[in-house]
Inverse folding.
């Protein structure tokens, strides 16, 4: 295994230096890291060519043209998960990160295998889509078209492409339109069962309606998310870590626009100019062991966060699965417009 540090560069390094690093490293990639080895981005020969075509000079800092959202793996995963990720994203190499987002290793592509998988997928598609009005006045949010197809269709196709075929779609607001569009799912090589919510049941309450239908660990995902998440990796990680619930989390970065002052009473002990704060936030994608449905009140409003709080109070394991792939919550009009502009680059390559 080659040492990843031989291909590490800083955000301020010039294009000329990055080209030298890529040429010397002979791995066709450079890793952009900060002083704490936190991965900030990646650069390939293709990124450099595109930057040059746009008129960027050899003195351009790498942070201006690097891939800021590179596909990565986790060092704690099985090597088979790394291989699947590289195959799905047509990559020759994959940076492996620790839980803090720091580089641990760089791995390379090997031959693949792809079995059919029976883990059920529960998609929450019953929301009112209030924040997307007037777009949702005539159709439910999961049927809004982004790119060339409804959001929910992209979600189902993504799961099917990874071997999953058994779906439960929870519907309420304008649910008949969803049922009419997807029917039994056979057009997508899937089997779809519809769960009718006669009242709003939150993000977990509808799971009580399928208590006797599921006997394997299963996915739960909001029906308004566009993502390139590798669900097989999530499934394998959930099993390997022996979690009862695994929540997908994303890193959210917030830069404070002022100099932050550290105080000891009235004495200033330090100052940090416009520091960046890192948070892990809920991505709306989960994997659960099927027994957990017994803890959900039947046909009552119940959110997934409430379920997790109850499980944590019992000292039962709830794990986190960090996401670094493309992810977009299409919850607001501005998100809808952004997803439109990004769709073909992400899903039709």
């Amino acid at each position: 295994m080659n040492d990843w540090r031989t291909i590490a560069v800083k955000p301020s390094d010039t294009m000329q230096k990055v080209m030298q690093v890529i040429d010397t490293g002979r791995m066709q990639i450079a890793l952009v890291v900060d002083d704490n080895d936190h991965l900030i981005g990646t650069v390939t020969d293709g990124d450099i060519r595109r930057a040059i075509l746009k008129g960027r000079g050899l003195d351009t800092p790498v942070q201006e043209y690097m891939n800021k959202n590179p596909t990565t793996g986790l060092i704690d995963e099985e090597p088979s998960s790394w291989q699947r990720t590289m195959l799905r994203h047509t990559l020759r190499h994959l940076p492996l990160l620790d839980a803090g987002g720091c580089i641990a290793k760089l791995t390379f592509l090997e031959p693949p295998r792809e079995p059919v998988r029976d883990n059920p997928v529960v998609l929450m598609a019953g929301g009112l889509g209030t924040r997307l009005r007037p777009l949702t006045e005539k159709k439910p949010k999961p049927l809004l078209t982004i790119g060339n197809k409804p959001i929910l269709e992209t979600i189902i196709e993504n799961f099917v492409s990874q071997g999953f075929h058994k779906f439960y779609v929870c519907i309420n607001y304008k649910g008949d339109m969803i049922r009419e569009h997807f029917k039994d799912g056979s057009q997508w090589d899937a089997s779809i069962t519809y769960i009718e919510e006669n009242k709003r049941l939150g993000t977990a309450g509808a799971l009580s309606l399928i208590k006797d239908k599921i006997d394997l660990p299963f996915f739960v995902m909001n029906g308004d998310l566009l993502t390139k998440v590798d669900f097989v990796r999530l499934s394998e990680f959930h099993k390997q870590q022996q979690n009862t619930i695994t929540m997908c989390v994303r890193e959210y970065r917030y830069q404070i626009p002022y100099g932050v002052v550290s105080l000891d009473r009235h004495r200033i002990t330090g100052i940090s100019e416009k520091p960046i704060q890192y948070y892990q936030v809920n991505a709306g994608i989960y994997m659960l062991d099927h027994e957990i449905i017994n803890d959900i009140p039947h046909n009552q409003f119940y959110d997934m966060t409430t379920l997790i709080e109850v499980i944590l109070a019992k000292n039962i394991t709830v794990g986190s699965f960090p996401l670094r792939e493309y992810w977009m919550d299409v919850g607001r009009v501005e998100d809808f417009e952004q997803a439109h502009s990004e769709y073909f680059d992400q899903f039709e390559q």
Summary: The longest strand covers residues 276-288. The first helix runs from residue 15 to 25. Helices lie at 15-25, 45-53, 79-88, 151-161, 175-182, 231-241, 304-313, 333-347.
